[in-house]
Write a structure and sequence with these properties.
Helix 4 packs antiparallel against helix 5. This protein has helices spanning 14-33, 38-61, 75-86, 98-121, 130-161, 165-171, 177-185, and strands spanning 8-10, 173-175. It has 187 residues and is mostly helical. It has a two-stranded antiparallel sheet with strand order 1-2. It has 7 helices and 2 strands. The protein has a single domain (8-185), classed as Transmembrane di-heme cytochromes, Chain C (Fumarate Reductase Cytochrome B subunit), CATH 1.20.950. It is found in: Cell membrane. Pfam families: Ni_hydr_CYTB. This is Cytochrome b/b6 domain-containing protein. Residues 12-172 form the Cytochrome b561 bacterial/Ni-hydrogenase domain.
């Protein structure tokens, strides 16, 4: 589908953006608050859990770029894309690229494990269980590591494709492929 030069295309819905930034807020809040103020830490975790839960539901029944089926690709496609990326010949995607699609799943899964294990730890039946504490901490560190990789990739791909991907997660729009190519060719 081609778009006139300069046209902006809606890429991320309002719900996707609210969930994205709500998840960021919940994760950053839980990390920054820490366990010194347990009730605030728990509240931030519940925000993250709610965002992940709705995002998973949206990924299953949503439409467009929100649906997992629109951006989660087979491992062979991900490996092919990674090879193209290493050669500097990767295609631009309006939604998530193949590596980004798997990053979404990894972030959602690790956040879900961190949130559920944190919630279970508040229950009398699981209070003080060392394995649950280790699971919660391990999942939280995995989320932090994946988030660092994610942010680095967003910055790098923004530079590679000459577009501000973080801004698109605020506005919900990206330039059409035609407009982006023409802008990239200008001196």
């Amino acid at each position: 589908m081609s778009h006139p030069e300069g046209e902006w295309v809606r890429t991320w819905s309002v719900l996707q953006r609210v969930l994205h930034w709500g998840l960021v807020g919940g994760i950053v809040g839980a990390w920054c608050i820490g366990e010194e103020r347990q009730s605030l830490h728990d509240a931030a975790g519940y925000v993250a859990l709610a965002a992940v839960s709705v995002r998973v539901l949206l990924g299953i029944v949503g439409g467009g770029n929100a649906r997992f089926a629109s951006f989660v690709r087979a491992p062979s496609a991900v490996l092919r894309y990674a090879g193209e990326l290493l050669r500097g010949r990767e295609h631009r995607y309006l939604g998530h690229n193949p590596l980004g699609g798997w990053m979404v799943l990894a972030l959602l899964a690790c956040t879900l494990v961190a949130c559920i294990s944190g919630w279970l730890y508040t229950l009398d039946a699981f209070w003080g269980m060392a394995w649950l504490d280790l699971l919660h901490r391990g999942a939280a560190w995995a989320v932090l590591g994946l988030a660092c990789i994610h942010v680095t990739a967003v910055v790098w791909m923004s530079w590679r494709h000459r577009e501000n991907l973080a801004a698109s997660m605020v506005t919900g729009r990206k330039r059409s492929s035609v407009a982006r190519r023409e802008r990239a060719m200008r001196p």
